[in-house]
Amino acid sequence: MATQPSSMPPVARQLAEWALALDLRDVDAAMLERVKLHILDQIGAQVSCYDLPAPRIARAYVTQFGRSGPASILGTAHRADPEDAAFVNGTAGSSFEIDDYGGNGAYAHPGCVIVPGGLAVAEALGASGASLLRAATVGFETIIRLALASMPSMLLGRGFHQTAAHGVFGVALTTAMLERFDLDATVDALGVAGSHASGTTEYSQSGGEVKRAHAGIGAAGGIRSARLARLGLSGPPTIFEGKRGFLQAFCNAHDARFLHEQLGSHWHFPERGALKPHASCALIHHHFAAYDELRAAHAFSAGDVEQVVLGCEPLTVVHTGATGPRPTDIVGAQFSAEYGIAMRIVSGRNDAGAYLDAERDQFQNPAVAAIAGRVRLEVDPDCATQIPKGKVTLYLRDGRVLFATAYALGSPFNPLGRGDIEQKYLDLVSRNFGDKTARSSLGLIMNLEDVADVRQLTGLFAQPRTRNGKPRDALMQG
What pLDDT sits at residue 232? Predict the structure, then answer.
């Protein structure tokens, strides 16, 4: 377990100094474009998922127990206090497994906390797009650095869910930047955020929709941490590396150096940020890509498949192998490697519509169930590398054995192009808000540094288009 030398300033202070001194003009162009693409992707997720069950519950909670304010709940005309808006929007953005993640072994979900948290605060302040972009850039990089410092041990060894546990720090720092805290208050915001870090992965073992709310909890907790620090509440300056700090409490193995080395001179996020083309746990996207390679290279049908072996890294076995081949709810289906690969073999689809169709069939499609029951997961040394990947081995009824190893489509080693990412956004947003709003908002986000007031962007999503007077849901309409 690597820690920083005792002669160095606390990690939180180093992070705060770096963040507050950052000039957007000094940020690498590739980093800025990557951040804007992830902001784009997350807003697409939020506005297309706003009326799914978990966001509806979050919205009902805020309506009943929250307070009004200047921040938009995207997809609705409702406005709320930034904490409350961040909670609802974060829940929406993480509610159907189409949000971003950290690839190349940096397990994280930065967009679904940084974007709703930062956007809510920026909107309340009437901040410029450049201010939001600057703060979000720090937020994304901080979460990826936290992932490199703490994962996979935090999840694999302890069972914590990284989304809220990492996200609360990123949003606290983002908020401090937007609200122009001084150095001491920013350090305190990070220290207080450690007491809001939360969330376990028991949902992957026995189910539960609460997983959808973890991003909202992290985004709201980050704003609350910064607000408390602004009012004078202090936090431990050694919240990360201390003897009873975050890394020690949450991890069996950790490396604090990722949190402070090369701050400002090396950006990890462009090397690690990943986006999803499929609506499932990102860990099994490697296997979808490997299967697609086999399907393109060989002639066979679903009925020819006798057995499937998924070669995995250990985390994939633990996180996507617990549900088993017969999920009973949609969270279980999206986190079941067996069920997901069986869907791909039978229909070639793992998009949002495919999982919603499976839910309507109560996960009882006989063709999918038959193959899912013949899928086995195992730890494979070819996959359990520093940069994890997935292997699919098919045993066919005619005696052939086919295998392929691949990186997930959308990950840094198998990236989606900018055009693919923008098309995903347009497809999601246009179904609820029309093509004009989709294209206008895309232009604003991809030129965020030139936007005078972020309310120009959020205002586009206050009135969703309707069909027969009823709200349209991009995911449900297909």
Answer: 98
